[in-house]
Model the fold of this input.
Amino acid sequence: MKRYSIGVDFGSLSGRAVLVDLDTGIEAATSVFEYPHKIMDTELPTGEKLPLDFALQHPRDYLDVLSYVIPDILRKSQIQAEQVIGVGIDFTSCTMLPVLKDGTPLCFLGQYKNRPHSYVKLWKHHAAQKEAEKINEIAEKMGEKWLSRYGGKISSEWFIPKIWQILNEDEVIYNNADRFVEATDWIIWQLTGRETHAACSAGYKAIWHKKDGYPNKKFFKALDTRMENIIGTKISAEIIPMGEKAGEINQFAAELTGLKEGTAVAVGNVDAHVALPAVGIVDSGKMLMIIGTSTCHIVMGDEEREVPGKCGVVEDGVVKGYFGYEAGQSCVGDHFDWFVKNCVPADYRSEGISIHKILREKAKKLKPGESGLLALDFWNGNRSVLVDANLSGMMLGMTLQTKPEEIYRVLIEATAYGTKIIIDTFEENGIPINELYAAGGIAEKDELMMQIYADVTNREIKISGSPQTPALGSAMFGAVAGGYFADLAQCAKVLSKVRDVSYKPIAENVKIYQKIYEEYKTLYYYFGKENNVMKRLKGIKEDVR
Amino acid sequence: MKRYSIGVDFGSLSGRAVLVDLDTGIEAATSVFEYPHKIMDTELPTGEKLPLDFALQHPRDYLDVLSYVIPDILRKSQIQAEQVIGVGIDFTSCTMLPVLKDGTPLCFLGQYKNRPHSYVKLWKHHAAQKEAEKINEIAEKMGEKWLSRYGGKISSEWFIPKIWQILNEDEVIYNNADRFVEATDWIIWQLTGRETHAACSAGYKAIWHKKDGYPNKKFFKALDTRMENIIGTKISAEIIPMGEKAGEINQFAAELTGLKEGTAVAVGNVDAHVALPAVGIVDSGKMLMIIGTSTCHIVMGDEEREVPGKCGVVEDGVVKGYFGYEAGQSCVGDHFDWFVKNCVPADYRSEGISIHKILREKAKKLKPGESGLLALDFWNGNRSVLVDANLSGMMLGMTLQTKPEEIYRVLIEATAYGTKIIIDTFEENGIPINELYAAGGIAEKDELMMQIYADVTNREIKISGSPQTPALGSAMFGAVAGGYFADLAQCAKVLSKVRDVSYKPIAENVKIYQKIYEEYKTLYYYFGKENNVMKRLKGIKEDVR
Done:
């Protein structure tokens, strides 16, 4: 009897599952389910209006994913549930929600459904910026040594700022939440009945450290006396290492998914981190870029170093025995979508052809530097190296001859420079990047963009061989949890995939991009540090609204 | 028998005439004719490709204007040619062309029609930037005192750089040109058979001064030994004061236009300067903004002062007895057109409604500062205060929520800040601006823009009462040339027009715009002086192409 593992990857807009044959690595079936409530950034399902920078989700959508995609792949592949020996899941992070003792989300309860803070805060919920800034300020004043692990700043996207925002804006929800949990842990709770707090998201997003634990009570008290005892009460202090088995499918989950009770479930992972083994990265010096609406950069090192603007470093956070470093860009695919939705003239469109495709075709004909344009990729703030959600986009060089395809190309280039500044910052701080890999929808489809990335970074780029990289990674963790392989390295030898063809830098393009990159870097720090005009304009905007 | 005067205004894309009743000021008829060859910026009529930044025109189009619009207004008004006692014309400037001794444009000759430099260089031809920079450098080194009259820099749009470009790039045309003439003077030549060189364009665009004359031979020799004796040979040294009669309609012109031989023709004017009397400005302290594809700002002062970035100051250049100061913005209406052509999504468009109107309606609903955006209006370089055609556009503050109408509004605001920095610079340098007037298509039609201008400048703005302000001004000069009024001041009392309703600043808007203007100013000088990234990117662009 053939054996299989299932990986389920929860993204920003949908959940997708893959069923993997554990002897051949063949992906026997896949399935996608889009969240019915999408991202709620203007109003709740009840019509309640949302303030600026909110980005919420409905946890019911995640259960709908499980009840659709798992039966769907079993049906498509015509295998028996018994043949599935493990399940792994991964989620965008930090995506978090308040729940009761039994795991029930507060937004499921009638009395809270009108209260925005009872819902899931998606990773890109940016309304806790004030709290993040206060945390950074207090931590710096108190000399908290964990601050440097996160590049000197924690982000408004993370766990503690989001919780503090709930306390500041809706104490009722804060008081009635028995736990605040990462969505990935919440899914594992639903599947197994066991509450876990996985090391990966705890380490990268909740300021947990293998040796030092969480920040101490004194720190939390300094934030707000009501938060003094939050660790061990509203935040689970029991951290489960990555790669372990979290538990087994229980009766509720068996009914929801059609899997057998007792099937092994791996500890919940984060979408980016889970992808490294899927492309075969199981040791240090190899960076993976997961390129989608945003980009996450992960590389393992042999020791813990300080790197400005890294989002975090977690021991055993990706593969046991290594220090997993994370960095990120908060606006990549979103960037191009914004442009296409808001700034492309009617006569560029053609029935039945994607406007992205039309623009890429036109942009492909341009040479590097030919447009005279330069942009800073801050449309959704800056995660690494600056860690500042209040930054905004900048473009210059426009003339009356500037064409949409030139702007489209420069938005791509901006994200490539953003990646280069991250790579350079790692290397300048003692974490070598010897190989570069890319995964995610855009990396797999967009040849123009990947060539620009190779030219800007002056590095060969290898592309993931699976169209469902994180889901494949999750399935690998599921297979290890189910005991089919001795460890992740063994599993990766059989199941990981990269494409045969890679992108290689073109010397004459590299030369031009190096010059423009110097300009990018100057403006990056000018608007990031020296002239806070973007933040002052955001202040005016908030005052006026 | 009623008496009339005709004014013909030559713009960037068309020529338009107005017939004015000299007793009532009523505009009895108007007519427009669009240049068949438009602006030639990619190729000549012969298919010959044009280099970057060229903007040429065909002088045949100007004769077509005369032969269409004058007969048209005579026919429409059903008056006799005898009733027309004077004609005035005005032109965009510096718009210039090489001609033979008899006034024949070199591009009319078969042997030159393939050579770009034989055609008219429109004001916005920016390909003589190299020459302008060299002129500024040499003039500074030689301590030429005229340099400060032009704000310390002369522009690539002007007469001498354009001539020097011809010499540098096509010596055949240079050698075979008997004269280089302003288009306004060329039209007068066609109408009267007399070559004139009007004080207004000579003073503002050709470095002529009432007391000091042109730069001396030593200077021209320093540019190029072949130019040493250019004054008095290829450039007429005989300057005619504004407001004089240039001559009378000759046989050729009578046949072309249907006017009577002997009708008085005023000295050729410049479109912006001719407009001041049309709104009743005949003394100092009142600034007129002529707002179209670009904006020209003119104000008269009682003495000659140095003002950074002013385009020029000419004694008697507008009205006798005053010093006419000019400043300018090279990208205003062009700015909005670029945006609408290149950056507006299909779903914003609606059959039969101008997209400008749709965007203005949406933009009108926004409050100042609400978008968080800020732009520098450098899409077509910067004329005043920086005098640098190599600058390019900049916009910042974009987020993933930014909408087209927000961008549209911020492009308007950018041009308003550009105007404010010009006004402030005049006042800081001793030229008071007590009243503000606006004319031109945009000023007359766009309420949103004019209110933004009132709010940004914190001044009341009076709007020209004629839809054909420069043409009306030209007709006024024609009437004075024809002897119907004692002088321009008398004439203005009868014929000048402003609207009854003006735009007044709204206090709460003023407050917000003052804050944003401070940000604009910082970035204006940062990109204008401190960080030359725009120019380096333009350099790369030129290398790559």
